[in-house]
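ok posting inputs for the 8-OXO-2'-deoxyguanosine-5'-triphosphate job
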Amino acid sequence: MTSTPLVADGDRPREGGADRAVVDVAVGVLIRPDGRFLVTSRPEGKVYAGYWEFPGGKLEAGETVEQALRRELHEELGIAIGAAEPWKVELVDYPHALVRLNFCKVFDWTGELQMREAQSFAWQGLPLDVGPVLPGTVPVLGWLAAERGFEGATFSVA
Ligand SMILES: Nc1nc2c([nH]c(=O)n2[C@H]2C[C@H](O)[C@@H](COP(=O)(O)OP(=O)(O)OP(=O)(O)O)O2)c(=O)[nH]1
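and the output
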């Protein structure tokens, strides 16, 4: 893709455009006891359809990140999560939106995974063996790599 994710300079207007509101997104990094983590593919009809990401979605009015994550993972995957541990926040300036990704780690959930939006899922280690990866998702792989002392490419298809 030609879009370059970047850390936006505050809420500055984009070239030729009006001010863009920041869209908050809650994203869950579900980690199993064996260390593998869950990635899902974006459903048809959404921007970046078919790209792999961590599950989550936009906050609705009045929601906290944790509330939104609990709702989204129930809606999309049919699971009930326990505590969501705030981890990293990343601002990404896409052509379609300026998004603030609020990544949380989740170690506890109940229920069997159901792909309620006909997405695909994969439990992955590093490097990923699925792709392409959403631009705003790539840094997460680097953070996981740093925590795990993993060196080398974290994915093969961007
Ligand atoms: N869920 C998720 N979204 C991500 C990741 N990385 C990344 O750049 N994004 C971006 C893509 C989208 O611009 C935005 C999430 O919006 P979305 O369209 O998936 O949210 P949603 O499920 O609430 O969508 P909708 O109901 O409006 O269709 O965040 C990621 O790892 N996970």
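notes: Confidence is low (pLDDT under 50) at residues 1-16. The domain at 22-148 is CATH 3.90.79.10 (Nucleoside Triphosphate Pyrophosphohydrolase).
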